[in-house]
TrEMBL record:
This is Uncharacterized protein. Gene3D superfamilies: Spore Coat Polysaccharide Biosynthesis Protein SpsA, Chain A. InterPro entries: Nucleotide-diphossugar_trans.
Length: 227
């Protein structure tokens, strides 16, 4: 848990009965980049949740079994898979600026489409990162000049580069750096493809930093077991 404070006071009234709790205090605003990359335990598998998402009642069971199957089980381990994503992905990775945005839903909803698939685009709603991949990213970004707008862009004018350019002056984002990082290495995440575009996590896309107006959730939350 992270919050901004003076280092002496903290939300001590918080009740947590599910294991050890560590509270990280930032004495100043560190932005999105700092929240995701500073003071985290890079030895563990990480699940990163923000305050505008809701998880399925089955999310923990799914993650535990998926981690056991894809990460801990050596016979299934794929060194190019950097983690898991609980969100429903709809964006085409190769979408380029100047073209209308299309969705991968049509391909995913065709008869015989897989329930799980590997996809290179990062999903930030309910992202799980394996420790060696996350450490490699942190070591890499420490060598990057984050003030250089061109270094944060993927080649070829991808849509993600347009997002990065439009937000560069407003805040320090981390997602575009990670997109470029995995693009160069050919890494990917595991996604789910449930019926009716259901997902293990949804964002309500409330008005604020990322959205000018409240747009509500794009997907329904999964109420059935994913296993």
């Amino acid at each position: 848990m992270e919050y901004v404070g003076d280092g002496e006071t903290h939300p001590s009234k918080l009740k947590w009965s599910h294991g050890p709790l560590s509270i990280i205090v930032h004495k100043k605003h560190v932005g999105l980049l700092g929240q995701w990359t500073v003071s985290t335990d890079h030895q563990d598998i990480q699940l990163l949740l923000e305050d505008d998402v809701v998880v399925s009642p089955h999310f923990y069971i799914f993650l535990k079994q998926a981690i056991d199957f894809y990460y801990i089980n050596e016979s299934n381990y794929d060194s190019r898979m950097f983690g898991l994503s609980m969100q429903h992905q709809h964006t085409v990775l190769g979408q380029r600026t100047g073209f209308s945005i299309r969705s991968i839903d049509k391909e995913l909803n065709e008869t015989g489409a897989p329930t799980f698939f590997k996809y290179q685009l990062l999903g930030t709603w309910g992202a799980v990162f394996f420790p060696e991949h996350w450490r490699a990213f942190l070591e890499w970004i420490a060598t990057i000049n984050i003030e250089n707008i061109e270094e944060g862009c993927t080649p070829g004018g991808l849509l993600s580069a347009q997002w990065w350019v439009s937000r560069h002056l407003a805040e320090r984002m981390w997602t575009h750096w990670f997109i470029r990082f995995v693009y160069e290495r050919g890494w990917y995440s595991l996604y789910t493809n449930f019926p009716n575009r259901e997902a293990l996590i949804v964002s309500y896309r409330e008005s604020g930093l990322n959205f000018n107006v409240t747009r509500r959730s794009m997907n329904a939350i999964s109420r059935t077991s994913a296993t």
